[in-house]
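Predict fold of Sn-glycerol-3-phosphate ABC transporter ATP-binding protein UgpC; 229 aa.
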Amino acid sequence: MASIQLKNVTKSYGKGKQALQVIHGVNADVADREFIVIVGPSGCGKSTLLRMVAGLEEISGGEISIGGRVVNDLEPAERDIAMVFQNYALYPHMSVFNNMAYGLKIKKMPVAEIKTRVDKAAAILELGHLLDRTPRQLSGGQRQRVAMGRAIVREPQVFLFDEPLSNLDAKLRAQTRLEIQKLHRELGITALFVTHDQVEAMTLAERMIVMNAGVMEQFGTPEEVYHRP
Ligand code: ADP
Ligand code: ADP
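Predicted 3D structure, encoded as C-alpha cells:
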C-alpha cells in the first residue's frame, strides 16, 4: 500500500480562449492505508480527479505522487492502482476463478502464485465455493464481489472506487458498503472513493475531500466536516 500526494493539481479541457478549467489547485496528503472519500455534487470534478490519479486523464498542472513516486507521465498500467467502477463487465464465458485470475495470467505470473492470490481474495469475499461457476450463475451481489476480487488479486498500492454503489438497490448497497469496509480493515488498503452521496461518504470515510465547482472546499474527518461550529 502507499501514500498519495496531490500538489496543486489542476485540470483544463480545451486550449487557449476556449479552455475550461474544471479542477482548481487541489492539495491533499493521503496517508498509507487511509480511506479517503471524495464527495460533492454532480459535475464538481470528482471523477476527473480520480481519473487523473488513475492515469486515464492527463494532468494539466501540478503533481500527483503515489508511494513517493511522481506518476504524472506514467501509463495506468505503470501506476500500481486498481479501479472499481459501478458497471463491472465480467467475462461471461470464464469461470469466477479465471475472471479473477485473468489480469495475472496476462502478466505471466506463475500459476501457483495466481492460485494463492485468488484463493486468498475468494476467502475474504466469501467466493470460495463459487470459483467454478460462470457469472451467469451468480447473483448481482456475488458478481460484484468477483469484480472486487479481480482488483484485490493484483495487490495494488492504491484502490480507486468510482461510485461503485450507485447502481445498486438499497439492500445491496448497504451490504457492499460493509464488504468494502471489511476490505479496508483486513487488507489495510489505501483508497480513494468517489460518491455524490453524503451518507455513504460519512459512513466510509476516515477523511473526506469535499469538492464544489472544481475547488476542494474541505479536507477532514466526517466530524470536522459536518460538525463545524
Ligand atoms: P463529477 O464526477 O463530480 O460528476 P466530472 O469530473 O465528471 O464531475 O466533471 C467535472 C466537470 O468537467 C464538469 O463540468 C464536466 O462537464 C466537465 N468535463 C468532464 N469531462 C469533460 C470532457 N471530456 N470535456 C470537457 N469537459 C468535461
Ligand atoms: P483456461 O480457461 O485459461 O484454459 P483453465 O480453466 O484451464 O483456464 O485453468 C487455468 C488454471 O487455473 C489452471 O492451473 C487451473 O488449475 C486453475 N483453476 C481453474 N479453476 C480453478 C478452481 N476453481 N480452483 C482452483 N484452480 C483453478
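The CA atoms of residues 41 and 196 lie 5 Å apart.
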